Amino acid sequence: MIVEAPELATLTGIRHAFFTREGGVSTGIYASLNGGTGSNDDREAVKANRRRMAAYLNVPPEHLLSLHQVHSPDCLIVDAPWPGERPKADAMATATPNLALAVASADCGPILFADTVAGVVGAAHSGWKGAFTGVIESTVRAMESLGSDRANIVAALGPTIGPHAYEVGQEFVTRFLESDEGYERFFRPAQREHHAFFDLPAFIGFRFEEAGIGRFVDLGLCTYSHEERFFSYRRSVHRGEPDYGRLISAIVLEG
Fold first, then answer.
1. What is the C-alpha separation between 33 and 246, in angstroms, rounded?
2. Closest CA to 137 of 188, 207, 194
3. CA distances for 162 relative to 30, 76, 127, 226, angstroms
4. For residue 180, is it within any domain?
5. Where are the beta strands (DSSP E) in 67-144?
6. Containing domain of residue 242, as a range?
7. What is the pTM of this model?
8. pLDDT digits 0-9 by tens, 121-160
9. Backbone phi and psi for residue 201, each to the nearest 5 degrees, phi listed first
10. Which helix (DSSP H) or strand (DSSP E) does residue 249 occupy?
11. Residue 205 is assigned to a structural domain of this protein
12. What is the pLDDT of residues 46-85, one digit of tens each?
């Protein structure tokens, strides 16, 4: 049902989980632990799945907080459950115990952050656009505003589309190279003309290296390649499926 990052699991005072697609009640293309409130899955099934996730993290269901993700660099500081609709952003940070910061993904990079010295945690949804425009750096700055020292931050990248499965067009490559020619190292040629494979996990790792945090780890799990464990947006597109489930990754400060 879950994957843990050993580097986070050994820290005291937090709980975390990169939930897989296993262990829920959804059926069909959403089978079975779909946590995506933005999917077209049965609402009650999604709620039941999220209750299971909240129970694992030892928080009330309403304390499992998700965002309306828009592929932005924006990070919110959170100190209570949302009073109404989910805000639009792609990352959160908190120093408040018993709030589970949760991000949804299905190929994009789910990143969990912890500074147990300061008692601050964060979570970010980082696809190529978020990584490119600064969602990682925004999350680190938000954690610093809560008293964190970036040298003490441990961050883990959960299940993400791997470099052998993320084929992109020339316009995508050009966008990166116009920003920095050195980004060429994150691409390799694809068989199709004017296409390339993009290494999103490596690019995320580079952004963490530039940010100067204490430790970053990539769990090396490809969403596209492991159908039995993970949802994948790109795999669903290749199969012509009408929708796809969402994986949930979450972290919480224990009270």
1. 8
2. 207
3. 21, 28, 12, 11
4. no
5. 75-77, 91-94, 100-105, 109-115, 120-126
6. 2-162+199-253
7. 0.99
8. 999 999 999 999 999 999 999 999 999 999 999 999 999 9
9. -60, -40
10. strand 247-253
11. yes
12. 999 999 999 999 999 999 999 999 999 999 999 999 999 9
